[in-house]
Design brief:
41% helix; alpha+beta; 83 residues; 4 strands; two-stranded antiparallel sheet
Length: 83
């Protein structure tokens, strides 16, 4: 039991010293590799019928705005007839 406590204390000290050394070097966050082929960011648009946010490439244009699907475009255009 005594050996487990000693090992636990040593592990805690090692973690504290490692964190202090990392902060001294300026490495607050661990390094993570970024994906090299990340898709470019797209503006998010809001469906005029239900309010769902979706990427610009997935939005369907229609009378009165953009929509998340054909059913919402048809429902919106039915509820808002041309004057």
């Amino acid at each position: 039991m005594k050996f487990l406590v000693v090992i636990l204390v040593l592990v805690v000290l090692w973690l504290l010293l490692r964190g202090t050394a990392r902060r001294a070097r300026g490495d607050d966050a661990p390094r993570r590799s970024r994906p090299t082929s990340a898709p470019p960011a797209q503006p998010m648009l809001v469906c005029a019928h239900c309010g769902l946010h979706l990427p610009r490439d997935e939005a369907l244009p229609g009378r009165g705005g953009v929509f998340c699907g054909e059913a919402h475009r048809a429902a919106y255009e039915q509820q808002h007839p041309v004057r």
